[in-house]
Amino acid sequence: MQLRLLAPEFAVCRLDQHAAIPGWATAGPFYAITRTGRELSIVCPAEQVPQEVHCQRGWRCLEVDGPLDFSLIGVLASLTAPLAQAGVSVFALSTYDTDYLMVQISNLDRAITALAAAGHMVHPE
Q: How many domains, the chain?
């Protein structure tokens, strides 16, 4: 698979389940918002997130070159298996067209090395 490393540092935020979607969450070119019965999760560039917001900063994002056909099987498994073997935790996101893997900056070099060893290519943005 071909992957592209997106440029900014990202944050994964948790807000109250009933919170309104804040303007800072949608200010950048890439963001993901998921609401469940227990939380409102937001992924966006870390620089946009106010300091008082409960979040984990320090993520980088790998975008799988898409669009991917819905009939493809094992796309995420082919990427997460070598990362798991290398001890790299991921936060996965999927859209209609493709998949994204968030990895902590501290594990980025190890992730890229593991993906390359498994035959995947990671390109800078």
A: 1
